[in-house]
Amino acid sequence: MSLNKLAAQVADEFEKQYGRPPRWIAAAPGRVNVIGEHTDYNDGFVLPMAIEFYSVMAADRPVDGKNVITLHSTLEKEAATIDLAAPVKPGKPKWGNYPRGVVAGFLARGINPGGLDVLLHSTVPLGSGLSSSAALEVCTATLIEAVTGQAIDPVEKALLCQKAEHDFAHVPCGIMDQFISALGRKGHLLLLDCRTRKTELVPMNDPSVELLIVNTNVKHELGSGEYAKRRAECEQAAKILGVASLRDATAEQLERAQGSLTNVVYRRARHVIGEIARTIHAAEGVRQSNWTAVGQLMYASHAALRDDYEVSCKELDEVVEIAESIGLAGGVYGCRMTGGGFGGCAVALVKTKDVAAITKKIAADYQAKTGIAATIFSSHPAAGATIIKG
């Protein structure tokens, strides 16, 4: 569904909920990371893309004039409220903490949106690693900009949303998700330097290719503890190598120091150092429309995440193996797991003309091998946060 159609649908839902049309509508997309996994907390590079799935908010001033923001969601039973007359703190329902944190960030900057009736709808699949939370945060921020007429710098907006997730949802996320949702542009990927926060739009508007996102519909509970362990192992490697972070290390340095590292720490560092290089090369490949090269880098990324970083799982590996078996002859350039790992999604670079056949083959083979139905959809690089009405 196009964003304009989706906005019209949300406007209708708002009218059903509140009995009048909305005055403002804002949207922000989810994302998929094309390449650059577990590089963010090592000061490396990531290459995400905004996807054509959005959080959309419609709003109007409350009829009773109260200084309260009331948020209804089409996906949640319980509404969330934010009393602007009191200090904004985390509360219940839990889903409301994402917008609460964003409102608190704007209030801290002296920007007060005032009372609002809001309806939220999201098409970003929840719990699939496609950043439904960042889409919600950036959508809230964009709505406040529409309501107040005060736009803030997009980088500042992304950082405000990241802080909201840290302080109100207690999720220690990196900067990628909010950056791509706030700064994404249609027909482009975003090369983000996680150290300097410098961004570069990388054009990807070749109609002959698109990205296929395969949600394995599994999430193994290993995730959170393993994530902290990987961070610690990377810090240990950087310390032994005598660098501020693995961003500053080379493959040659790592090989020379191999005897000083445990096998596990060596392999973690090998993935990160290799992945930073792969991400830079992939961005160059996209610029040149060298899809074969980009695909090979995606496969290499998956292999390193599976073998050296050990964050894949059998379901993700199955998807990548099926994609490899289809191969270039069947329209697949490359495939890899995307996101933190232990489940969630894989992303494949495919020929547009073969999308239907590839989708059918992956769905059938994955179900036959795992007994689980995958959710599969394709996307071109989508627009970032946008004010649709206001």
Account of the 3D structure:
The protein has helices at 3-18, 97-108, 132-148, 154-168, 176-183, 223-241, 251-256, 263-287, 291-307, 314-326, 355-370, and strands spanning 24-35, 45-60, 68-73, 80-83, 116-122, 188-193, 199-203, 209-219, 332-338, 343-351, 375-379, 386-389. It has 390 residues and is an alpha+beta fold. The strands form 2 sheets. Strands 1, 2, 3, 4, 5, 6, 7 and 12 form an 8-stranded mixed β-sheet that branches. β3 (68-73) and β4 (80-83) form a beta hairpin. α3 packs across α5 (176-183) and α6 (223-241) packs across α8. The mean pLDDT is 96.
Task: Pick out its properties.
single chain, 390 residues, alpha+beta, Ribosomal Protein S5, domain 2, Alpha-Beta Plaits, 2 domains, eight-stranded mixed sheet, four-stranded antiparallel sheet, 11 helices, 42% helix
Give a short summary of the structure.
The chain is of the alpha+beta class and 390 residues long. It contains 11 helices and 12 strands. It is globular, with a radius of gyration of 21 Å.
Distance between the termini: 22 Å
The CATH class name of the largest domain reads Alpha Beta
**Extended strand count:** 12
Fraction of residues in helix: 40-55%
Sequence of secondary-structure elements: HEEEEHEHHHEEEHHHHHEEHEE
